[in-house]
Amino acid sequence: MQIQIKAHxxxxxxxxxxxxxxxxxxxEDEKRPELNQLTREVVILQIAGLDDVELTxxxxxxxxxxxxxxxxxxxxxxxxxxxxxxxxxxxxTDVELTITESQMDIDEFREAQEQYREGVRxxxxxxxxxxVDDKNQMTLDEVAAGSE
Length: 148
Description:
Strand content: 35-45%
Oligomer: single chain
Structural class: alpha+beta
């Protein structure tokens, strides 16, 4: 399923855990039933005029009041910084937004989010060295010995 709507790109926020984008929809587009059908699904967002730039996101919610409908999306963690920056440049403007249903289901999306947030586990010592808990992690001495 794919839907193309006219929307106001309200804001894009990012913190240490997630990145969100928010759009305002008014007029006839906010009455389209496809918006409700795509809510809580993994979607691909594209803005007209930004060629080859798309964001994979979870369509978190659609909230309607007397003036507008607010669409909120949580962007998948592996979207490149260049892609999100191109989107960010459009924030605060009216855009033509294309929302396409992704092949990825919500469980795969959340699993990918968790993997993106995972880091190397270990302990920082008083002298500034790090002990890594990953048994597959090579030391510099092992790397040097392997190259000889």
